[in-house]
Amino acid sequence: MSISAMVAVPILLGVAGQAVWLSIALGQALGELARVVVIWGWNSVGLARASALEDGARPGFYLDSIPPRLLLCLPAAGAIALATALIPTASPIDFALMASAGMVNGLNGAWIYISAHDPRGLLRYDALPRTIVPLFGVAALALHPEAWLYSTAVLTSNVVAAVIPVVVMRRRLARAGVAYAHPTFTQALTELRAGFSAFVIGLVLVARMSLPVLAAGIASEGIGVVVALADKFIRWGNRALTPFLQFMQTSIPRGTSPLAMRIRRGVLRTIVLSVVTTIGSAIVTWSLSPVISAGEITLSPVESTAVGVVLGAIAFNSITGNSSLVLLGRTRSVAAGGTAALITLACAAYPLTALLGAAGLLLAYAAAEVCITVYLCVLLVVEMRALKRRNLSSALATAAPSPTDGT
């Protein structure tokens, strides 16, 4: 998917111009918000739950997630329709199509293949459809230079990626001779209530990703196109990191060694990954921004560094928050910290943008991510010490002689 999007950016800028391309970028930002509403935490807490299941139980677990997610498409679609009517864009049709593509992406099954440590299934049933179909849309632009062709192709690819896993899981149940019954409406609502905290964690993360580009695009086209390109690099980097991070997330609950040891090992690996991601992303963003935009937009070293810091923090926070602290029972605390970071971003965005333009807005985003990183580190240290005390108390209780010993 990232490959097709990277190829599409210079072509769309050349064919449709900056204003229409910005409409597409704004639609994608809104679509990410719609996606996280529809997926409702199944790609985080649901991922951890699925990884603990036997292989034969995963198809039914995945199919149980479809009715609740389809219910969530109703408010998401309504919000997209309202935003299309209210937000001024150069191409409302491209805005609506890309936002709808994000909503449908919330129905995909990538997380179920990751939970089973099945990279082949992830490639065949998710990555390939969402890469190949948009590439046809890019090719169509050469024959008929209309941006909606690409937007329609992206929406189609996400529909295909949502339908295929359902077919695959149903076939697996049929081969196993397992009868399947869809969850009732009440059961679907129960699942939604159970996943609310995980949904909040995902929502505030994506809101922090989408707020800068939405705010910049609405306020000023000049600032908007710069922030939109930076947003592309952040989303491409996040999408590239996601499979690795999710495999790391599932390795922590699946391990056989003591939980504290698994968490420490996972965090140490993530520190290395985060440092490499920060430095590498900053260099790649700075050097490739003029290439990706066909010379239209060049991100400054400050803006590129902010992109690197954001991606490095996202990588680190995904392990400390979505995996380690969730396993330690602090899901609500992680959600509260993410909400505080979103408020920090909202408060810092206007003054820094007024002072430094696009660089100020991206620095506000980076500062918000650093704040949540510090908060999660402190919370994890506190919880790890508490876990150590609980383990020590349990060990002492086990070793203590019973009252009847020696009588």
Record keyword descriptors for this entry.
407 residues, mainly alpha, 2 domains, 14 helices, 85% helix, 0% strand, membrane, Polysaccharide biosynthesis protein, transmembrane
Structural class by SSE content = mainly alpha
Mean pLDDT over the full residue set? 83
Number of helices: 14
In total, how many domains does the architecture comprise? Answer: 2
Approximate helicity band: over 70%
What composes the largest sheet? none
Q: Return the string of H and E elements.
A: HHHHHHHHHHHHHH
* Poorly predicted regions: none
- Strand fraction equals under 5%
Shape: globular
CA gyration radius, whole angstroms: 22 Å
Number of strands: 0
Q: What is the straight-line distance between the termini?
A: 72 Å
Keywords: Membrane, Transmembrane, Transmembrane helix
Protein name: Polysaccharide biosynthesis protein
Furnish the topology, listing elements before pairings.
Blueprint: H1 2-39, H2 45-51, H3 58-86, H4 92-105, H5 110-115, H6 119-143, H7 147-175, H8 185-194, H9 196-219, H10 221-254, H11 259-292, H12 301-327, H13 331-356, H14 358-399
Helix pairs in contact: 1-3, 1-4, 1-6, 1-9, 1-10, 3-4, 3-7, 3-8, 4-7, 6-7, 9-10, 9-13, 9-14, 10-11, 10-12, 10-14, 11-12, 12-14, 13-14
Plain-language structure description:
Helices cover 85% and strands 0% of the residues. The mean pLDDT is 83. The protein is built from 14 helices and no strands. It has helices at residues 2-39, 45-51, 58-86, 92-105, 110-115, 119-143, 147-175, 185-194, 196-219, 221-254, 259-292, 301-327, 331-356, 358-399. The chain is mainly alpha-helical. It starts with a helix and ends in an 8-residue tail after the last helix. It has 2 domains: 1-194, no CATH class; 197-395, no CATH class.
